[in-house]
Amino acid sequence: MKEIKNRQLVQSYLQAHQLESIFNDDIMPYLSLYHFEQGELILSQGEPSKYLYVLVQGKIKIYTTSAQGKTLILSFKTPIEVIGDIEYVQEIDTINTVEAVSSVYMIGVQHTLLKKLTNDYSPFLQFMLTIITEKFYLKNNSMSFNLMHPVEVRLASYLLSVIHDENESILSGQLSTSSLADTANLIGTSYRHLNRVIRQFCSDGLVERKKGFILIKDREALTTLSGGNIYE
C-alpha cells in the first residue's frame, strides 16, 4: 500500500464518482488516497478494522477463509464500492479478506474520524444506508442467479469477472487450476461437474486447459454465453 499525497487527485476522484456531497467540509482534509498493487491485500479477515475505503479505480475480490484454511471467493467489485462499511457500523473486526485484482486506488479515512465528524451528517449516513442495502440486494440476485441458471452460464460469468477490470482491460487472461474448488463453491456446483463443463468449454474453443491454469481463448463467446457479468 502506498499513500498518494495529492489533494487534487483525491478531489478529481470525488468529482468523477459524484461523491463530493457525501463528505462534509470537516472530514474532507482527512480523506487520503491509497494505491494497491495487483495481488496486494487491502484488508485481512480477522484483523482490527480501522479504515473505511471507497474503491475509485480498479478491481478487487472479496473472499473468506475457513478455520481449515479453505478459501471461498464471495464476489468481485469495481467502482464505486465501499469496503469496511459493515465493520464501521457494527464496530467489529474485518469480516472478509479483500485483495487487489488489478492496480487499485482507494479513498480511505479512519473510523474514529468518521464517527467524530460525520456521525450526524445525513448525506453520509444516507450514502452508507444505500451501499449496505445494495449489497444485500446484489447478494440476493447472486443467489437467484445460481439457482436459475445452468453451470455453463455461471462459469462463463465468473471467468469474465476474473480476467477483466472495469475498463475492460485484460488482467491475467487465465485462471489457476488450484482455485477450481473455490470456483465450484462460488458458482454453486460440484468440483466434478465444474471439470465436465471446463472440458466442454475446451472442446468448444472457449478456453484452453494447460498445466496449472485455464487460458481464456474466446472472450466474445463467453460474454454471449454469460448474458451479463453477475459476479461484479
Can you give keywords for this protein?
2 domains; single chain; Arc Repressor Mutant, subunit A; 5-stranded antiparallel beta sheet; Jelly Rolls; 8 helices; alpha+beta; 4-stranded antiparallel beta sheet
What does this molecule look like?
The chain has helices at 7-16, 85-90, 111-118, 122-148, 151-163, 180-187, 191-203, 219-226; strands at residues 2-4, 32-36, 41-43, 51-57, 60-65, 71-77, 81-83, 97-100, 104-110, 174-176, 207-210, 213-216. The protein has 232 residues and is α+β, with helices and mostly antiparallel strands. A hairpin with a 2-residue loop joins strand 11 and strand 12. Helix 5 (151-163) packs across helix 8 and helix 6 packs across helix 7. The protein is elongated, with a radius of gyration of 19 Å. The relative contact order is 0.14.
Cα radius of gyration in angstroms? 19 Å
Largest sheet, strands/sense/barrel: 5 strands, antiparallel
Supply the helix-strand structural class: alpha+beta
**What is the CATH-assigned architecture of the largest domain?**
Sandwich
Shape: elongated
Mean pLDDT: 87
CATH fold field value of the largest domain: Jelly Rolls
The CATH class of the largest domain, by name, is Mainly Beta
- Kindly report the name of the CATH homologous superfamily of the largest domain: Jelly Rolls
- pLDDT below 50 for ≥5 consecutive residues: which ranges? none
Strand order of the largest sheet: 1-2-9-4-7
Strand element count? 12
Strand residue content:
15-25%
Separate helix tally: 8
Question: How many angstroms separate the termini?
Answer: 23 Å
Helix content: 40-55%
H/E element string? Answer: EHEEEEEEHEEHHHEHHEEH
